[in-house]
Specification:
The complex is a heterodimer. Chain A is 4% helix and 41% strand. Chain A is mainly beta. Chain A has one domain (17-273). In chain A, the strands form three sheets. In chain A, strands 2, 3, 5, 6, 10, 12, 14 and 15 form an eight-stranded antiparallel sheet that branches. Chain B is mainly β. In chain B, the strands form four sheets. A six-stranded antiparallel beta barrel of chain B has the order 4-11-8-13-6-16. In chain B, strands 1, 5, 14, 15 and 17 form a five-stranded antiparallel sheet that branches. Chain B has a four-stranded antiparallel sheet with strand order 7-12-9-10, with no helix packed on it. In chain B, 54% of the residues are buried. Classes of the chains: A mainly beta, B mainly beta. Chains A and B meet through helix 1, strand 5 and strand 12 of A and helix 1, strand 1, strand 3, strand 5 and strand 14 of B.
Chain lengths: 274, 282
Amino acid sequence: MAFADYDAFYTSLQEQNAILAQVTTSTATNTRLHDLYRGALDVTTGVVPAIPTTAVALSKSNTTALNYYLPNYSPESPYLIGARLNSAGARGTYFIIDRLSHQGGLDGTAITAQTTNLPTAALTRYTDGVGVIAALTIYTAIGATGTTVTASYTNQAGTPGKTTVAQAIGASTVNAGTRMVILPLAAGDAGVRSVESVTLTATTGTIGNFGVTLFKILGVICVYDTQSLFVGDIITGGLAGGIPEIKDDAHISLLFVGDATSSSGAISLLIGEA
Amino acid sequence: MAAITDLSDLINRLSGGNSGTPENIFAFKAGRVNGVVATTPTIGRYTSLWQYDGTYGNGSAPGAVAVPTNSTSGALPITNPGGSREKWLTQVFATCLVPGVLMVYDRLLHISGLSGGSALDQTVQGSSPSVTLTRNTGGVGNIAFYEIYSTIGTTSTTLTMTYTNSAGTGSRTSTINIGATGFRESQRAQIIPLAAGDKGIRAIEKVKLTATTGTAGDFGITIARPLAYIPLGAAGLPGWRDFTTGLPGLPKIDTNACISMLFLQNAATVGEFSCGFSFVEA
């Protein structure tokens, strides 16, 4: 399905059908990417979600999905059409993602290939892996010693045994809880179906807890002010990503890059049906 | 080919109607090249992100002159439009840990393996090119830049480019400095001006350095068509362009386009980039 015209789009905006997210106050690393899986409250309990352990494929049926209370729209489809947001503390970018698969329990000191709770659970959406991004989410601070990390993965063509390009981890900007480390892919690859193992070059000095997250970005909200209400839609601005369709069983979650060391906020993602 | 008739048509296509085939590609670029921290950039100068590691793999030094496409490693992995439709860029978003200006371009032709230690003619496409542009072949709006793949020397000299302009006039020449600090390091890119009155480039016959820079290194020449400029005003703040509401309208993306980026640095810090591109067909 699709919006027939501007009137249909406008009517959907007026319906104010929204996903609500409460982002808790968190300490961030200025200008770096953060995973707000545990920075946004569980919509059913109002508490911070637990750290993942075993590999899980996520969907709307998980209470950590910000769209948990959305109905199923089939045979029509939900689309992300707008946002309202009040950000305190930091300006920056909120990434709206479909969180596909994650796990935890990896160790910041182990220097052999780690397979605890791996491989990642098989994708149930975007199953070909095209455009699916692999990253490491730090759940509990690892050490302050800088090193590099690689992962063994299966690419979008189904080729296993591919290795990500070495990426920095540990040290002061890449070790705190909520930090997310993107895993660059080998030349020619454009997505990930699964991650089989993770290897640190050297210890970071502290075990901590981190895990692999697979996700697909649906859109971004650009925020240029704090303590102020941002209102935007995909047409008039501030919200990038076209008019993305949200799969009915998506697990909507957030990432954040900001210009200050702490952030919190309330976010409404406006959903249109077509 | 069909034009996007109005905002209603665009909304319809962006949400998948009328064979709009919307494509949104979000990507991250680490400040690393082949797993190693990238060379510290220079304020006020362009850094080429062609070789930066990222979520769609990085590019490499091309070697012999070639026409890269969307299937070349390092290119944004866009799909070509289906049927007889054309592809249009509707939005670009980016954020970086340092401020600057991101230029998004179609990489039309490139070569590496040129020497910073030679003062002889160095062939790019030659006087009777066998490798020629396959996109924006008329040349209007095309730019050229030199791109350092491996550090050249510390002595500043002058690069003279001999090219055919967009009117088809050959043996046109223009010059730019090359070598010395800020103009020698890996990933540095420097746009080469055109001769007075010229509006673009169809082909580049050769380049020649006035004197050696002192080290051969490895540099190359790239012909590009700029598609969009995104200002990133402050560290950690996003920049975005919505071509529905802002000039220059919706940029057309040629079939097989090899989309890459240059970054005009406003800090001497290696950047990490998040970016997103939205396309629609019509």
